[in-house]
Amino acid sequence: MKIISFIMMNIFLSLYVPAQTNNPDYTLTTEFGAGYSYYLTDMEYNDLNKNGFAGTLRFMWNPEHLLSVGLETGYYYLYSIRVEDMNTEFGNSKFSASMIAVPVYFVIKMKITDRIRILGGSGTYLLFNRGELFGDELKSSLISIGLYTGLSYTHPLTKDFSIGGEIKYSYIAKIQDQTLSVQAIFTYNLIRW
Question: Phi/psi of residue 5, each to 5°?
């Protein structure tokens, strides 16, 4: 009786439980993101615009494990300010200034579910300032270290293409300010092996 039960259980399991395949699925993906960025700062000016555009370009290596690694860059419009009549010790003038940031990060993503991932990165920011005062154009740039953490959700449309969303918090050490961004994310599998 035990032998018959054992044979029946094996037949049942072979029919209804899929066999485990030893077919690793590695992918190299590119991810594009575009959305909204809000600049979190202590600067208090009435004419300070803290709203801007956020863009992301990311290349990730996704092994069959929970962790993925990659490189990321992007574009963040941090702030702009425009004052029509600024009073200085040298007289009155129009004043405008803006800053953008271009990050270059090493990124790690961890899979929580098939569609939800936690991500974080660390690297450098290239900061570009532009302004105008007394009719003269002012430009400067500097480099800062920084980091970010975020949460992403993607929904597959095909085997190689997914869409979703991402929320990220970033910290820029040199100016000791942060950004909060929300982006739509488009993921494409460049290579699968």
Answer: -60, -40
Task: Identify residue 2 by its one-letter amino acid code.
Answer: K
Prediction pTM value: 0.79
Q: Does domain 24-192 have CATH number 2.40.160.20?
A: yes
Q: What band does 130 get if pLDDT is binned at 50, 70 and 90? A: very high
| DSSP string of the chain, one letter each residue | -HHHHHHHHHHHHHHHSPPPP-----EEEEEEEEEEEEEE-S---TTEE-EEEEEEEEEEEE-SSSEEEEEEEEEEEEEEEEEEEEEETTEEEEEEEEEEEEEEEEEEEEESSSSEEEEEEEEEEEEEEEEEETTEEEEEEEEEEEEEEEEEEEEESSSSEEEEEEEEEEEETTTTEEEEEEEEEEEEEEEE-
Instruction: At 52, list the tokens.
Output: 């801007």
Give the pLDDT confidence of 180-193 residue by residue, as tens digits. Answer: 999 999 999 999 88
The span from the CA of 54 to the CA of 178, in Å, is 13
Cβ–Cβ < 8 Å for 175, 144: yes
Q: What residue segments make up the domains of the chain, in order of their start? A: 24-192
CB 167 within 8 A of CB 22: no
CB atoms within 10 A of CB 15: 7
Residue 25 backbone phi and psi in degrees, to 5? -120, 100
Cα–Cα dist 65/82, whole Å: 49
